[in-house]
Amino acid sequence: MEGATNAPDPILLTLFANRFMSVAEAMGRSLQQTSISTNIKERLDFSCALFAPDGDLVANAPFIPIHLGSMSFAVKYQMKLYGDSLKEGDVLMTNSPHAGGSHLPDITIITPVFDANSKEIIFFTASRGHHADIGGILPGSMPPTSVNIFEEGAEIVSFKIVNGGIFDREGLVDYMVNKPAQYPGSSGCRNIRDVESDLKAASVFLPNHKGIQLIHAIVDDYGLKTVQEYMYHIRNNAEMSVRNLLRDAAKRAGSNVLEAIDYLDDGSPIQIRVEIDETAGSTILDFEGTGCEVRGNLNAPISVVHSAVIYCMRAMLDLDIPLNAGCLVPLDIRIPQKSLLAPSRTAAVCGGNVLTSQRIVDVVLKAFHACAASQGCTNNLTFGAGGKDKDGKSIAGWGYYETIAGGSGAGPTWHGTSGVHTHITNTRIGDVEILERRYPVLLHTFGLRPSSGGGRQVPRRGTGVVRSIEFLEPMQVSILSERARARRTVSRGGGAAGAMGAQ
């Protein structure tokens, strides 16, 4: 089925939008309840979504924006690899940026949904979770010093983690422990038990299986033809909403061309030129002028760029619609080759997903005159122990990862919010009770950082936070962050710049 032809019933349109979103929400609750890692169970660093038979995003719950836009790339990549060979009981696993991934700790589990009668694929369910350690040169698999992808842990282009209903533990251990340890200076996954448990929860039991059950329930209620028709109606509704947004943006700006530029701490520019066609309600978003691929890990895969852009479009819409593939239809995103937004096959990318993506969001929102920049960074803290012994053999250990909150930018009629996770990192921070019970640390301070928002002008930008941790035994600690060395967060309309971070 290539699309819907009949005009949608507005009541059924709203009903199906909420039914589809409720599938993703139920998947997320199931994943949280069945996982054991702090990162997924407490920090909620995961996303679940529903995809059309062609791999386009249909609906999602409001999880992690940077996951949701890029997961469609991952689903479509696997579809090209397997074609029509997938069968019931197959579950796919991937995390490679080359195959639609964001960065290596984000592992995607994809399950096809088959029609009960025709046995054809009618949907895909997928979940993506950030796993605290998947190997690499440092515990936490987010090394600030990585210069290639091999130093960041296990890379999996495609792995059938469940084949015909049989969980492939041997293959999982090979991918997660043995292969990354072959690279000089790197270790395999330091806590395969937790990672295996979370992946088994996602791929064998829940949440994807829960999503399949709920999809079949909707099909039973309305019939496959009606369900797929409204899947396309929802996508078309999102498309028209974005087209109207673009027309309004051009009118407010008094110009069909919008431009903005910002910089990473090393001076690499991220530049955008937005050309809006008011008649069609479409736009070209051209990142020409963005800096070249960097030697470090601030390179952002193309799928991450699309995630950041689709998030901005959805955030600027004053409508209650699901984020889905329709939001991208009016957009022609152009990314220069060999730039840090289109990195080479082996480039390091762990920081691009969590730092550069925030800067892309800032630049897009700046071009549309939507709001001032937020913290511009996710402040990635990792610590842990384990790795390799003197003979080079991997030894068991553990890793912990969290993103530290900051302030959100103010808009024309509203204040920014203090001490929150902004934009692409819609996660929680580790609760003190969980943190101190599960890890050898003491949390001494966690509070707002006075006057870090940049001044007392109205509207006011949100302020950042102070987080002070004492480590009770020797371990490796690292932080991957921006806005802490050279550049402060920028503002528009005469607002003061935010304070630089400090570690």
Secondary-structure blueprint:
Layout: H1 10-34, H2 38-41, E1 46-51, E2 57-60, H3 65-82, E3 91-94, E4 106-114, E5 121-130, E6 159-163, E7 166-167, H4 169-178, H5 192-205, H6 208-222, H7 224-253, E8 257-263, E9 269-277, E10 282-286, H8 302-316, E11 331-334, H9 350-367, E12 380-388, E13 394-403, H10 432-438, E14 441-448, E15 465-471, E16 476-480
Parallel strand pairs: 10-11
Antiparallel strand pairs: 1-2, 1-5, 3-4, 3-6, 4-5, 6-7, 8-9, 9-10, 12-13, 12-16, 14-15
Helix pairs in contact: 1-6, 1-7, 3-8, 6-7, 8-9
Task: Label this structure with key terms.
single chain, 503 residues, alpha+beta, seven-stranded antiparallel β-sheet, four-stranded mixed β-sheet, 16 strands, 21% strand
Provide an overview of this structure.
Pfam families: Hydantoinase_B. One of its GO terms (cellular component) is cytosol. It is globular and about 65 Å long. The chain is 31% helix and 21% strand. It is built from 10 helices and 16 strands.
Concise structural overview:
The chain is an alpha+beta fold. It has helices at 10-34, 38-41, 65-82, 169-178, 192-205, 208-222, 224-253, 302-316, 350-367, 432-438; strands at residues 46-51, 57-60, 91-94, 106-114, 121-130, 159-163, 166-167, 257-263, 269-277, 282-286, 331-334, 380-388, 394-403, 441-448, 465-471, 476-480.
The proportion of strand residues reads: 15-25%
Strand order of the largest sheet: 2-1-5-4-3-6-7
- Number of continuous helical runs: 10
- What is the approximate shape? globular
Average pLDDT = 89
Low-confidence stretches: none
- Could you estimate the helical fraction of the residues in percent? 25-40%
Separation, N- and C-terminal Cα atoms: 54 Å
The main pleated sheet reads as: 7 strands, antiparallel
- The SSE order reads HHEEHEEEEEHHHHEEEHEHEEHEEE
Structural class: alpha+beta
Number of strands: 16
What integer value in Å does the Rg equal? 22 Å
InterPro entries: Hydantoinase_B, Oxoprolinase-like
GO molecular function, one term: 5-oxoprolinase (ATP-hydrolyzing) activity
Pfam families: Hydantoinase_B (PF02538)
Domain Hydantoinase B/oxoprolinase: 9-502
